[in-house]
Write a structure and sequence with these properties.
Number of helices: 10
CATH topology of the largest domain: Quinone Oxidoreductase, Chain A, domain 1
CATH architecture of the largest domain: Alpha-Beta Complex
CATH class of the largest domain: Alpha Beta
Structural class: alpha/beta
Helix content: 25-40%
Shape: globular
Number of strands: 16
Largest sheet: 7 strands, mixed
Distance between the termini: 11 Å
Strand content: 25-35%
Length: about 325
Amino acid sequence: MRAMRAEEFSGYEGLKLVDLPKPGLSEGRVLLRMTAAGATPLDHTILSGKFHGSKAPLVLGNEGAGVVEEGGGTDFPVGSRVMFFGAYGAFEDGTYSEWVAVRKEDLCLIPDNVDDVSAAGIPVAYLTAQVALTRAGFRAGKTVLAPAIGGSIGNAVTQLARALGAKHAISSTTSHAKAEQAKALGFNEVIDSSLEKLADGVRRITGGYGADIVIDGIGGEVLSAALGALAVEGSLTTLGYSASPKTTIDVTDLIVPQASIRSLNMFLQPKAAVTDAWKVIVSLLKSGTIKPIVAKSFPLAEAADALRYLIEGRPFGRVVLKV
């Protein structure tokens, strides 16, 4: 079978198209014929040798969509379309491949109104967003800030918070063009941080109140700026570092509002939390209340170009490989 494998963690040039044996079926696994795989910043981090625990050679990709070929039982009959997320592509071979043997508990049926390419970009973004919101104590009426409306986490958090009854579901971007694109797509509470500071924009939108919950998948200076937007007793969850793993914070942004900062690692979440998140996400997908946005799709053999486009092109929406 064809697969895109990192022969070494040396950047884009380390990713090669290889021919590998089709995976065998073992207990607790379901054999999938992959149809699409999501490309994520984590894939690039691993390919760049900046993720702990991953070892080359490694087929990248920790999310995707496919068709059940064997082992799904009555829950996932042969021919079922499924999507999934897991430690694939990080600690074992992943989804940049024609076939994958997936743990049954990682699977979720794809709603009929969602195509495979869109589905491949759902798991990481929306599961992370929903788990983060739940852990932060989100409920209807809260105000949520998720920087980077064009990115997967920022967009998913914004959509979910809005769909679940947030008083304000605010996002931001450093690009004026992306701010305009977001507004054209119906995101009306987007701060153009090329024109105003992030905290100032949040205070303007909320009448001085601030954000009860901040979910930040960017890190770096964005995290520092977002802390200044917290409301009294607010919290910031940090779960990504695509901008930078390092930042400098003003501790008064936490002390004055008696706010808090916490972190999220999806690989450490209990299965029950992921199952609960899937239930919310699937219900909203079926109703059309949330809609995944795909910026561009690439053939499997062009995975390196796809990652380059994701990281350097910074598109609005997900980047997906068609298998």
